User: Fold these one by one.
Assistant:
Number 1:
Amino acid sequence: MITVKQISRSYPHCEALKETDLQIQDGTFTAIVGRSGSGKSTLLRILGGLDSPTSGEVFYDDISLQKMSEVQLAAFRNQHIGFVFQQFFLEPQYTVYQNVEMPLIIGAVPKRERRSLVEKQLAAVGLLHKKNALASSLSGGEKQRTAIARAMVCDPPVILADEPCGSLDTENGAIVMQLLRAMAGQGKTVILITHNREDAAKTDRIITLEDGQVIDDATF
Amino acid sequence: MTWKIIKLSLKAIFNNKMRSFLTMLGIIIGVMAVVILVSITQGATSGITDSISSMGSDLITATISDEDVSISAEEAESLTEYRAISSVAPVISMNQTVKKGTESGSYSIVGTTAEYFTVQDESVQSGRILAPSDIEWYTHVAVIGTEVATDLFGTWDAVGGTITIDDRNYTVVGVLAEQGRSLAGSDDSKIIIPYSVAERITGQSRISSFYVKAADSDRVNSAINIIEMFLLRTTRDEDAYSVNNQSEVLDTMNDVTNTMSLLLAGIAAISLIVGGIGIMNIMLVSVTERTREIGIRKAVGAKRKHIMLQFLCEACILSIMGGLIGLLFSYCGISVYNLIAGSIIAMNLTVAFAAIAFCAVIGVLFGSYPAAKASKLQPIDALHTTG
């Protein structure tokens, strides 16, 4: 279970999050919605250990991210969290295979094991036939599916997706949502940041943020 | 993991081939400068030190520099009365034009006695050396170096042939064994004639120098003292002569060579350092350009050491690769020099290895700052950079 306790995040000219409390159960598919500047992306980065709160703590079960050293936090991200970003953040000069393989290399997984894990994830997102293609040569939908395979390759229990369909057309957006839904079906905790009400409606729970605070929390 | 980092670094380097080459250029020039300069200096001087050391440590050279001082061969030869001295070879040196048919050339003429061959440890590859009777009877005979033989006789056997020196014919009675080149020139381009005949060519009976062989290596210092006393007594002027032992000359030569090599290596090392600064500059640019890549890697769990290692590895590979290319160019440069100068200088391997090791050190030193800068980037800042 992910527990957010009294999280605040201040920047020089604004306060993105204000003493926010939240609990997210394991294996749920949760959407965090809100207008631009409501603090949803800031919350996601803090949940993923990419950013630190000004005050408050984030717990994964009983483990506090804020009590971890930089090295521990890096290892935690590698093993426990998979990120999917709107801009894909693939390395264009590398192949699809090399992009997906990267977290495994960082996690010091042996080469033979890496091969089967990468191919399994590429098959799951339907891109095995493109494993040797350069990331720069892919379409938007393929790029996002590659990013999802990369997020899943270390089999993390938590997937954090920041506007994953924001740069995609409706058809590819629907494919990505199906993949996220499937992850939740496999027992992963999936947290989706989105502007899109239709995408949010496909989740189990919608948390609405406004001015850095939770103003609505609906479970279906 | 380490191999993977090396592969990633190589990929990053080859993705920007032109920029990588230009970055390496400073190192390439630096290594070329170090290796070529030191190799040429040491190679050129090794010839002369080899020829000096081959003469043995018991050889003493006495040179009379004052032309007003007259010492005869007989006076010099009287030194053999001392037990510390085993033999003395008086020498009259001059340069003369030597002819053989239509062929001619200017060669160094050494007028001496049969003792010269013992003292200088020289032998003939064909024919004979000078005999005492040649000196006594003013025989016009000559023992010539291999270069003279090739120049004047081509592939024909020189022994028994005739050469002309100062309008007089000389019969070639022997050809010296090949000795090779040194900084002072070729030792194979001299002509040895009887001392008594040389006296007639110069028209005076003074000798310009004499070589002395000490009875054994333990008595070299005694022999030097005896010669110095003899010369002082004869010339009454300390500045009119100089007495040198080959080992002293060799030591001085080695000192000069080592100092020269160090000086040249030091100057060239500066260009290596400048090359290192070039690498640091490009690595800093690379860190800025690849901020997003660093952010992605950090987001998926890369630790600071992973990022640090990758950039450090890139800097080291650039530096070492530059060093290796520099070595290749140095080899070509030395080969071209050998072709032009007609020498047989080899690449100094110690300097080559030292240059590569220095390149690795430069890679680490100048790659550390950009690598540390990259590793300290926060993932969120790195991802934010790209919007």
Number 2:
Amino acid sequence: MKRTAKEKSESWARITRRGLILGGVQLGFASALAMRMRYMQVDQADEFRLLAEENRINLRLIPPSRGQIFDREGRVIAANEPAYRITMVREEADDVDAVLDRLAQLVSLDPDEIERAKAEMARSAPFLPVSVADRVTWDEVSRVAVNAPALPGITPEVGLSRIYPHRETFAHVVGYVGPVSERDLARYEEPEPVLRIPRFQIGKVGVERNYEEQLRGRAGAKRVEVNAVGRVMRELDRREGEAGSDVQLTIDVELQNYIRARLGEESASVVVMDLAEGDLTAIASSPSYDPNKFVRGISVADYGIYRDNIRRPLASKAVQDAYPPGSTFKMITALAAMDAGVVSPSETVWCPGHLTVGGRRFHCWKRAGHGWMNLEQSLRESCDVYYYDLALKVGIEKIAETARRLGLGEVHDIPMSAVTDGLIPDKDWKRINRGAGWVIGDTVNASIGQGFVLSSPLQQAVMSARLATGRSISPRLVKSVDGVETPGRPGEDLGFNEAHLARLREAMFSVSNNRRGTAYGSRIIDDAMRMAGKTGTSQVRNITAAERARGVVRNEDLPWNRRDHALFVNFAPYEAPRIAVSVVVEHGGGGSSAAAPIARDVTLQALFGGDPPLEAYPTKDRDRIRELQERLAAEREERLKSAQSRA
Amino acid sequence: MSYLEYTVKTTPSGWRKVLYFNWSIVVLLTAVAGVGFLMLYSVAGGSLSPWAEPQMKRYILGLIVMFVVALVPIWIWRNMAFVAYLGAFALLVAVEFIGSVGMGAQRWIDLGFMQLQPSELMKIALVMALAAYYDWLPLKKTSRPFWVLLPIVLIILPTGLVLTQPDLGTAILLLIAGGLMMFLAGVHWAYFGLVIAAGAAGISTIFKSRGTDWQLLKDYQFRRIDTFLDPSTDPLGAGYHITQAKIAMGSGGWTGRGFMQGTQSRLNFLPEKHTDFIFNTLAEEFGFVGGMSLLALYVLVLVFCIVAALQNRDRFSSLLILGVGLTFFLFFAVNMSMVMGLAPVVGVPLPLVSYGGSAMLVLMAAFGLVQSAHIHRPR
């Protein structure tokens, strides 16, 4: 279209005007972009640089090796052994199924595990290793290594896993470790990052749990550069971790092993306490369980076997179960009475076989009665009526106070799980917990360790130790941590009249050394090693008047779980006590028949620090003892060999 | 016909035309493309393949296209304007039926040797058509309602088609480019006031349509807008890209982390690092200095276009040059706003730098038109 010159110049003028306006707007926008760039790259550069570093740098933890646990002589109780597993990287193995088929010919693979591994590989990034076999043997690892060219993407990995070479022997003391669970994490307000390492093991019960902090050590760390999908590009630097501290226990492996063998399948527990520093040289509960099974993750079937066993292998009976102490409590009643001055050791009480208090008749175990009894005689023959009489004179408050001074009713500070406080009843306790007033019959029951009174085998041992020393000696389980000795616990003088204690010890001596003593059958022949002790038989059922009329049923005729508990406490040697021992045999029948022989055998073993000469035993026991000694020697040999082969 | 206005004597002919090229623009474009090669080399981890080398070949092809287009007299291009528009429009319709699906949208026609995006062609065709239209329209009719409505229809039709592909980014670019062409041609201010008001109403309608049966945008488009408004709401999902892009840019600082030393791009935290987000790689490795240099190059191209347009007394030529400059501007302005977190991520490449064939060839052809207008301008 032809335009006039005027039109042309108007067109040009208009385009110029609008063009310049638009150009200005465009330049303005470009300046805005420049300012934004400046703001981000200059003003905010440091923040963004930090974010970029956070993106690319990943902190990877290196798990520390766990401290070992030794016995008092430095023998290993809990150690770490290499654990091998086999991992697979998907991107390196072109054909996952083919490689796994080839691997299956070399290593026994669990089909479920393989299914899980395949699913995990399909889900996760192709360069991440996925575990296909756990806990493979060294032989299998070598076979895989030899055939490496045919197994692309397969790598054997080595880690450390906990092992308990003594298996059942220390299960209750040391406990076990296991993978961190959600519940474990919930215990901490801010869980240490090391706990998030997959398969990281922490102590679940016992010393493993209570000394977790010391045993765990500190994780090392390495900084790696990763890309957006998490593949590690290179390692930037690393800081090595600190291994956990070793813990040395006061336990003596050989003594503990001896006790386990001696107890066999009996549902029983034994505590041995050294009287110098309060060291616990043995704490055994029987039957026991294999802690190694828990480290691996126990199968439901195995766990069911433990759980359903009526002898409760999972329970740490020596510290967590409390039993009526029965006649072993009589020393306390006697000491309370002497301390209060209501009776002198030579005073005699008539035992007609029963005592009627508050209209109720309390029987002595000997229906015919013991006749005239003084302190020594009553303890020796375990006359009940004598103590009924003492208790009525001294009252429950004094008895309870004495019991507490001797370590009953108290949680002793040892790093085991579920340590019980037992129960020493008094008037306040009954009012608060039972909502009823104290009646005189309660005092009578308490005087012979029945009724409400409960104590654990550990407390029994402490009581025996305090009677032997007159000091407030307390148990110590950890001898040293990382080579630093923990303080001993010999305790202070308890303030009892030494003459009273001497009479009591003398009476206990006659229990196992006087022909009329309840534990005479379990005496020690060696004069330098003779022990002082006390039997106890505690009822787990009430004997009704009707039953009594029919005549007391013998324990052997009752079902196992209704039989009496058998107890024994002692210290030895009598002249210069070195150890205190307590034994409880659940439903074992009588203290003198079931508990005292065990206590005697353990005492001799502990005093000799090994197998005692057979001459120390009464003639009738020697064959049995020899057989046991030979069996244990064979076992020791076996253990030594397997330890060497591991090393 | 306006070609009669040109005198053969003053218009260069034959190979002499080459001497009359606007060489400043050619040099600037090559510099921009050079930055692109460098960055594509860097994001490939210091390798010419897979991106830098094909990009160079395409740029050379683009230069050839530019020269060929430039040598054809501008009046021929003006007469071809509506043919080009109709052709591009036909392709847009065709892509609805035979287009390849990618990224949830139908955008491409596979030509075998390259993938053609008709929407890219349309950007230039629309500019040409509008420039020709206003060249043809007597000046005094410019602001009459009927003559305003006609170009609006020309703009709306392709925009609507692109929107259904759906390609929100290109649709918006077409709409803005078309509107600004009308502004340049001298349409009365009042119309623009009206459109802005209507636009505001339209945007609010779009947002209200969300979640109803007549929803105007696809869900992913709404999500992109959400993410833009607050990337931190979804730091590992859709917001991840923009967050990582900003980290890449910001961590560059004044002078950058060094050539091929950008951790965000090298370790793949940066998404689409060779296409839409290539500017962030540049900003990370060369810092504020590098980013500003590229921005300056772009602005210079724009300034040279405006100068060339204002030197040109031919109405079609002026409008066309301003329109091409405008298109170029919209490309880099939208892309940069997007990668700096100033605009939603709408998938607009950085012109001549982002890896991609269609956009580069079309842009080079457009600059061929600019050169043609410059060479054949009335003297």
Number 3:
Amino acid sequence: MKKTGFAFVLYILMIISPIRNFIESIMIAHMLIQLPLLIFVGWLIGHFIVEKFHSLFNSWNINGVPGMIIVVFITMYWMIPRTLDEALTIGFMEVFKFTSLPVAGVILFDSWRRIGDLGKSFIFLNYLSMFGLMAWLYIDSPIQICNNYLTGQQRILGWGFLIITLAMALYTIQSVFTDHSEENVL
Amino acid sequence: MGCLEMTTIVDKGELKSRNSMIATYLVIGGAVIAVMMIFGVLMLLAQGGVLDLSPAAFYQFLTIHGTGMIGAAALAAVGLMWYFLRDYVELSKKVFTWNLILFLIALVMIIVGVFSFEYASAWTFLYPLPALSAGAWGIIGALLYLGGMLVLGTGFLLLYIDTGRAIIRKYGSLGKGLGWDVISGKKDVKDAPPATVIASTMVTIVNTTAIVAGAVVLIMNVINVINPAFTFDPLLAKNLTYAFGHIFANAIIYMGVIVVYEILPRYTNRKWAVNKSFLIAWTMSTAFTLVIYTHHMLMDSVMPKWMLIMGQALSYANGIPVLVVTAYGALMIVYKSGIKWDMASGLAFLSMFGWSVGVVPAIVDATIVVNHVMHNTKWVPGHFHMYMGLGAVVMLFAFMYYLAKVDSNLKPNGLDKLAFVCYTLAMISISAQFLVSGAISTPRRWATHFPEWMGPALFGAIAGVFLVIATSIFITHFIRYIIVRNKTGSDFYERKLA
């Protein structure tokens, strides 16, 4: 319940116009702070929602794979540069962003517990390559990708993605090369 | 070696009746390899001036030949690795099945892309070629090919995640799977992981890295094909392409060699000794395989110099240690063992010869001063046809005969032995004609040859016909095994041992 309350406060804070406008005025903050925080909100309320609608989640997301596919599609959608632009210029797209990403967070919470080690590793590596791709795209693109952000901003975002990619790669390396003898799983 | 003798030396782990999926992997892999050989013969006939093949068709054949060969050999090699690795760690059959399903989907996508939509960039799909075909193919063909490669990579990625997880679960970490605790002296060498686990760990590490790198550059190409306004650094694209392609192709032999580690000890009743040199050699190969792809870029003068020097120096340090410890180990295990040669052991031993000699032209070409002259000639296909055709693929055929032997009562006949000789001579001839073509400066990947270049190509095409015949005999034997096995049931082991 505490988590749900925190999620509620966080969500309200992000909706408040000055905060929202400030975050969305900086491309890297929009993509790498606001969007993940909206997913995080969904993750935090996930426990509450999933408990409440336990049988509903069990009926369609028993092994977590359908849920993960939805999460991947929603997050991929919001990584497309054009969608960022549309969220800034079309009102209902902004509403869609503020609803779809928390929903993704809820589904992620439910799915992550269910998909097992193999699924987790696969999703993790999938995002690693996807973030690497986004880094390259935003750093190297010779054209302005978004109408609302200048090329300098998109390059900064690209470097942000690159740092995340490198961090994920380092995490993977330490994870597979440190001793898991005492554990039963990766 | 007779059946009765064989049954005395099979391990307990072999007493598994569910080899159907592995047989499916091998028969699909083998059949695709045979069909790809036919495309190879057709290309050589065209280059030899006796077959009127349009350049567009030639480059489509070139694309399917390279992609199909590597894909099919990797598929069969994974089947081989999985068969032996499951004796040491717990693997998921579901993932193994999914890899095959995704491979078949990818195969259909690639075939449709190449032959229905005339996609012909060669396997290298070197940016920006997929988008800049000068009208030779369109967006759909490129997307089908690139998408097919992504689907293929997805299947293999799932499989390597599974092998990695299984190795970590059993041994603690991938480092321990490579025997680092033994190298550092924390553990006694007698407790070192088996050779199969070491090789599988190495392949898991390098191929997971390769597939992740490949996914990035493939999707980047997809974006460029859909919207050519998005342009990217071609040098980075080339680096990622070869980081993917080189590693993935190279890893086939490291999966295939498991058959040598597994069957020669069973034939000779001796243990394959894993010692510190062996472990160090495999660790070196793991590290260096990841970085030596730069030897494909020695002609790219804009590459950082240190990377090119690294490409040369580490290419020497990469394959040779593992080759030496494996070849030496194979010789030692066979020496005065009283081994009775048959198709499986003979092919396994031949593969060691192929690997050893196939490395030589590679090392020559990885030398910068030579590379500047030879890299765009047929010298390079000379190297990899010898290395793959006489090394890696022979390991796969060795495994096919081994599996047929231990899992059924089928015996090879005189025709199989004839095919062995025929395959060996044909593959040596094909490799030699490529090397000779390289030596007389024949460019590679050219649909049309000057008359002066045609002789070796024609010779190679004739040898290729014999190669196709020999390969067909190998595969026919394996198909006969599947038929016999279906009739006798899948519990042959148990009945044989009872």
Number 4:
Amino acid sequence: MKLKELKMIDVQFLGLINATLQAATLLFIAALGELIAEKSGVLNLGVEGMISIGAVSGFITAINTENLFLSILVGIVSASLFSSIHAFVTVILKQDQTVSGLILTILGLSLSSLIGKKYVGKKLNTKLEGVFDIENPSNILEIILGQNIIFYIAIILMIVTAFVLKRTMFGRRIEAIGEDLKSADSMGLKIGKTQFIATCVGGAFAGLSGVYLTLSYVPYWTDGMTSGRGWIALALVIFGGWKPYRTAFGALLFGFLEALGPRLQTYGFEMSPYIVKITPYVITIIVLILLTIFKNGDTGAPKNIGIPFFRENR
Amino acid sequence: MRRSWAVGLIIISILAMACGGAADVDDYKAAFVYVGPADDGGWSQAHDVGRQYLVEQTGIETAYTELVPEDATEFRTVAEAYIEQGYNIIFGTTFGYLDAMAEMAEEYPDVIFLHCSGYLKNDTNFGNYFGKMYQPRYLSGLAAGAMTESNKIGYVAAFPIPEVIRGINAFATGVKEVNPDATVEVVWTFTWFGPEAETQAANALLETGVDVLAQHQDSPSTGIAAEAAGAKWISYNTAYGQDAAPGAFVTAPVWDWGPYYVEMVESIINDEFVAEAYWGGMETGLVSLYELTSDVPTETASLISDRTEEIISGSYDPPIVEEEFIDNVIGTVNP
């Protein structure tokens, strides 16, 4: 009896870890994409809409072709194309980034409902399975090995993004533009082009996050699938101080909270799920307060975030 | 000459009005307001199937608006647009429209408002309607109790309100009747419709070792999670959700609003409408248990059909408990 109980607790613990990794993967990829866009000075509040577009287009492709590689690709490309609306409006037309981003969210949610209407409730026959075929994982390593390909892609993206931003010419240019538009311009950097690319890369990441949602995490399509993940991803960028590794840590923390919510009830704790739901935002606010107190408000945010570039205004 | 024409016209119109005493279906238009998508595979779809049945049976002109949030202003905007277009029967199919419908019923005395799952009404043009879903939930509990091997059943539940608690207790009453050793563990999601929250809750329950899951939720996410874990699933609302997880689906307590809608609209047309609080049980066909799959043991299936007859004939009714959980339920009603 004792042993059996112990085993059960083990299963619940591993289940919590597994759910944490899944929730974290979804949040992290979207946040990492947003981080890249924001590094170049483009704030994109359309994350929720972009995830939704990636989720629905990947799902529809998977239903129709049963080709998972193609589905992932379609999800990424369509969300990236979708984000180019934001790039066009803010970088080329130089309009307000906040307004355009919010429009992108609303448009993305409605558009994905429209496109996905015929696919609500359809069963996905080929969902993304773990890279290593592990049945009944018995330790954390096996849980990690049992994750699907997008989890590993997320880790690679984290390393690559951190490297590119810090160590490559392209990354330094993005950062220069995000920090100081005028100097970047006088150095001859192609501001518009770089911001456009960074925004579309951000969209592509959000698309991958969406594909992860509908091909694996909740393999199903219906309206409101994203249920606020995009907003948590935005908070996550702030929490992570625009640094890929710290963002990954934040994703694990936020993902853990998300996984913990319903499980607390099965552990016998009586805590309102509402409290768990608001925690990521509360933590983000606390981080901002702490940074204000101890680091003179240096949150790590790119200085030029949200400011359109007009050469004439120099 | 001209005057006599006018008088003649007036007389003819008065005569026409007098003769046309029995109203015609063309004098009425019914509008439906849904909280979710009309094809959500759950709650709103059940109402839309009812609407389509109403059209087939009566030929009345209908329209619907989906995805109207549970917000007084949102409901009002939609409903007023319908009233301007001449719609004079309005069905609001979620609890959250309560206040807006109560107010609008006073403002528009010529329009009939019918509110699903609410508790307010007036004496003239505002009624509410709901069904005794706890009855088929009890029956589905019989199936769940017979099918569990681990003696652990999970229940993914939306909000701790009387309707949901009553359903859980009725379900657990059924479980207890066939399997006194089995428990029903409840996880609250605090959402009617949240695929991710429902998935997390279902997985949390599956990790505790449950092998049958039931739900009071509007998406089939619980079924998808159950299928992935090799567990069984009792759905809810309609049987449409089973397409998403056919391997786990056992049965579902389901709604059939069609006959009620027909009855109401016919009573309105025949000028026999009474604003009432309608609470239909299995005898009305409003609620029922969907056809069982072959996974359900034969003796359980025949027990279910016996109990169905007893409920319909009125000789048995599962107990209604809304204040607390009965003893084989694990969880709290005040999370």
